[in-house]
Amino acid sequence: MTGACRRRRSRLADADRGGASIQILYIAIIGLLFTAALHGGGTVLAARSHGYGLAQSAARAGAQQIDVATYRATGELRLDPTLAAQAAIRFLAEAGATGVINRITAAEITVTAISRQPTPALRTLGHPTVTVTATATAAITPQP
């Protein structure tokens, strides 16, 4: 190889130094951000699922409160509206949530649960909790 070729090769090698390191750094940062977004999104979905579970359970607790006097007199299963509302609200309070009773009929109860769920993956971004509102309906069921 001639001296001119060696000098040209040497200059090209000097111009490339560090370029791959910067690309790897960018790829690593993008990968970390993508992983954090997935983890944070999964945490929010889990919180929503838990909130919906609270609403379903509260509605089921209310749907077990039958009007005993009507059942003994006629054999008809009907909800006792007062007991059903109290049972649903009590369940939510014991679970650390609040809520409202949207509707009570003779056969079903609809409950909206409001809870604050922790989001540890989002704590560093300033969102340690997320407020979840979920609504569920349950049909009357006799108590065991």
Automatic annotation (TrEMBL):
The chain crosses the membrane at residues 20-40. The keyword Membrane applies. Keywords: Membrane, Transmembrane, Transmembrane helix. This is Flp pilus-assembly TadG-like N-terminal domain-containing protein. It comes from Phytohabitans aurantiacus.
